[in-house]
Specification:
extended; 3-stranded parallel sheet; 5 helices; 12% strand; alpha/beta; Ribosomal Protein L15, Chain: K, domain 2; 173 residues
Amino acid sequence: MMIHEITIKVGKYKVRRRVGRGHGSGRGKTSGRGHKGAASRSGWKRRAGYEGGQMPIIRRMPKRGFTNAPFRRLYHVVNVKTLQARCVEGAEVTAATLADAGVIRDAKLPLKILGEGELTKKLTVTAAKFSASAKAKIEAVGGAVTAVPRIKWTRPRRTNERKVSSAGPTGAR
């Protein structure tokens, strides 16, 4: 028996358990919350990783290594075979046109073209990055490849200087 067959017979959702409806229900008196303490009262939530006051496992584990995850660069990745299937001959391919066609979610991330599959259509492709094989395949059929240069993020500079009142820097106003 498979899980989708069980849900057809039993139903998709679990029946809500009614607590606090007498001893006979098995969930009377304290309604399954135990006796006293924060957990028995309304509004209490256990935060993720809370272990009742003992030192959490995440703090007991030693810190080792390094991750570059905060600095990774994310791209929308599209293969040449997708361009072959979704684009017409002579089309101009950008992140915006692929987003409109539903190939990628949106044009917020830069586009990267990879070389999996074959290409027979002549296309003009503009993207942030190309794999060597993708670039070769697009140019082999007479298409054009344009790489958009990456804009390096810099901290914005403060343009306005500290304003000094007419009374002077000591501030007697």
